[in-house]
Specification:
Layout: E1 3-8, E2 16-23, H1 31-39, H2 43-49, E3 60-64, E4 71-78, H3 87-103, E5 108-113, H4 117-123, H5 133-144, E6 166-171, H6 177-202, H7 210-223, E7 226-231, H8 233-239, H9 242-248, E8 256-263, E9 272-276, E10 278-282, H10 302-316, E11 322-332, E12 344-346, E13 352-354, H11 362-373, E14 380-385, H12 390-395, E15 400-404, H13 407-420, E16 424-426, H14 431-435, E17 444-445, H15 455-467, E18 472-476, E19 482-483, E20 493-494, H16 499-521
Parallel strand pairs: 1-6, 2-4, 2-5, 5-6, 9-11, 9-14, 10-11, 13-17, 14-18, 15-16
Antiparallel strand pairs: 3-4, 7-8, 8-11, 12-13, 15-18, 19-20
Helix pairs in contact: 3-5, 5-6, 6-10, 9-11, 10-16, 11-15, 13-16
This protein binds ligand BES, manganese (II) ion (MN) and zinc ion.
Manganese (II) ion (MN) binds near residues 282 and 361.
């Protein structure tokens, strides 16, 4: 755990191993940086002049201060053109700087934030009422410093990384301390939720089974004000969840439907239900996947992990809203008992499904969870799933696809995506797509006929049959749940996508409601 402190001091008074300054693309140092440059005998001016450092986004320049300042080192990190500053760029720059500082083996690092300076840049065209500079900086740093070394039991002493122990947010103004503290505390809680999800995803399939996920959910719930119920195969049978059970039947691991209930809102307030695909390993089943990169299919519970992470954050931030998390979890295996192409299952909704491809298992487990969601009479259902490879064809790894039945909900989610940097892009869902889910001999089939294409939309069209009339949005995170290379605040591997997006959404819903009831009172 990294200790975080906030402080107000002048830059030359402050003692730290590494003082980090956000530096825009200007020709020469200005403001506080100019003063610092003078103490450092013009190294910064020199760096700009010789173009060793130009303030480009995520560019870094580490300066040894030779005892000229109380900070052992000064680290400049670029944030790009002043006029084009966004929270996302700040998160990235903070992550980049924190990681470099850690690699350089500093233990105590400090982000220097001049009161109002970055805020002004962010506000320029957007006229925001609140400034979230400290939040973005803290989030970027915490998320960038994430690591997963659970299975590295024997690390050579020299090889073992040294971890950053303390992050200070330093301001030149006392007045901003409360705000810094509040924002960094929030950022820490959000980052904890993201890292909880990342951990769950990175644990391999032989550890993170449906039973393990259920245990993890129980443990998390016990730490927060969340109730957790686990439905096993018997209960599923009783509820008629033939679709979820059909996927699970090829595996020795019993399935679990994780039900998390957080009641931060008023009794009787319609909740938001978050449904997350929880396939702990996807071999494809009898429609077996090819071997290349199959190991990555341990990530097929990323939607479930995001749902669990979001509930944790909602509870730890004590958001005044009711939220339900549902994670239908199973392992998709080929075996003598596995479901076969052509088999027909009956879902909880009563609709029958012809399973033409056992590798389209995500929609099968989600179908029953969506039916289960209806019992909460939710004001919105959001499902997250690593559902289709097709979404990578459409959007690559840069955006999550959103498809749904409620434009208002979709637009809200897209906005939250812009704010958090977890981008969403809407794909259509038309009657023609729904028609293509009809089976010749059952009510539905789990894949469309060859030639229909639109794989991501077809996945959603199938889910729509189970979401019913409730306001519903489906997020296909198959391209965004996993990061193929290190990014400034997303290390290679599990991204934990969805947690920050959902947190933002839940927070806005909670706030919106408060404002509405205030208005009503007046
Ligand atoms: N879990 C996969 C989707 C996936 C692919 C996630 C790549 C992450 C990266 C899903 O269960 C699946 O296999 N989908 C099939 C659907 C097809 C059979 C209609 C796919 O995308 O090929
Ligand atoms: Mn599959
Ligand atoms: Zn899958």
């Amino acid at each position: 755990m990294i200790k975080t402190t906030v402080k107000s001091e002048t830059i030359d008074q402050h003692k730290t191993d590494c003082l980090i300054l956000f530096t825009p693309e200007e020709k020469k140092p200005a403001g506080e940086l100019k003063k610092l440059d003078q103490s450092l005998k013009g190294v910064v001016t020199d760096a700009f002049k010789e173009k060793r450092f130009e303030g480009k986004l995520n560019q870094t320049y580490l300066i040894y201060s030779q005892g000229e300042t109380k900070a052992g080192h000064v680290l400049l990190v670029g944030i790009g053109k002043s006029k084009e500053l966004t929270e996302e760029k700040l998160r990235q720059a903070a992550g980049t700087a924190a990681k470099l500082a850690e690699k350089s083996r500093f233990k105590k690092i400090t982000f220097f934030l001049v009161e109002g300076e970055l805020e002004k840049l962010l506000d320029k065209d957007r006229k925001k009422t609140s400034n979230e500079v400290a939040r973005a900086v803290a989030e970027g740093a915490y998320l960038g410093l994430y690591y997963f070394d659970h299975y590295k039991k024997k690390m050579e002493k020299d090889e073992a990384p040294r971890r950053i122990e303390e992050i200070t947010l330093l301001s030149n103004s006392k007045a901003s301390l409360a705000k810094l503290r509040q924002q960094s505390e929030r950022a820490w809680k959000v980052a904890e939720g993201v890292c909880f999800a990342r951990d769950l995803i990175l644990h391999p399939g032989n550890t993170a089974t449906p039973t393990y996920l259920a245990q993890a959910a129980k443990k998390m719930a016990a730490k927060h004000k969340i109730t957790c119920k686990i439905l096993g195969p018997q209960e599923m049978k009783k509820l008629g969840m033939g679709s979820l059970l059909g996927v699970a039947q090829g595996s020795n691991e019993p399935p679990a439907l994780i039900v998390l209930e957080y009641k931060g809102g008023k009794k009787g307030d319609a909740p938001v239900v978050i449904v997350g695909k929880g396939i702990t390993f996807d071999t494809g089943g009898i429609s077996l996947k090819p071997p290349a990169n199959m190991d990555e299919m341990k990530k097929d519970m990323s939607g479930g992990a995001a749902a669990m992470g979001a509930l944790q954050v909602a509870a730890s931030l004590k958001l005044p809203i009711n939220v339900i998390g549902l994670v239908p979890s199973a392992e998709n295996m080929p075996s003598g008992t596995a479901i076969k192409p052509g088999d027909i299952v009956t879902s909880m909704s009563g609709k029958t499904i012809e399973v033409l491809n056992t590798d389209a298992e995500g929609r099968l487990v989600l179908a029953d969870a969506l039916s289960y969601a209806a019992r909460y009479k939710p004001k919105a259902i959001i499902d997250l799933a690593t559902l289709t490879g097709a979404v990578i064809m459409a959007l690559g790894h840069l955006a999550t696809a959103v498809v749904g039945t409620d434009e208002n909900l979709i637009n809200k989610l897209i906005k939250c995506g812009d704010l958090t940097g977890e981008k969403l892009w809407q794909l259509p869902l038309w009657e023609e797509h729904e028609k293509a889910t009809k089976s010749d001999i059952a009510d539905l089939k789990n894949i469309a006929s060859a030639g229909v294409g639109a794989g991501t939309t077809m996945g959603a069209a199938f889910l729509k049959a189970f979401a019913g009339d409730q306001p519903w949005a489906h997020l296909d995170i198959a391209g965004t749940a996993w990061c193929g290379e290190d990014k400034p605040y997303v290390p290679k591997g599990a991204s934990g996508v969805g947690v920050r997006l959902l947190t933002e959404f839940l927070e806005q819903e909670a706030m919106g409601k408060k404002q509405k009831s205030k208005k009503a009172k007046r």
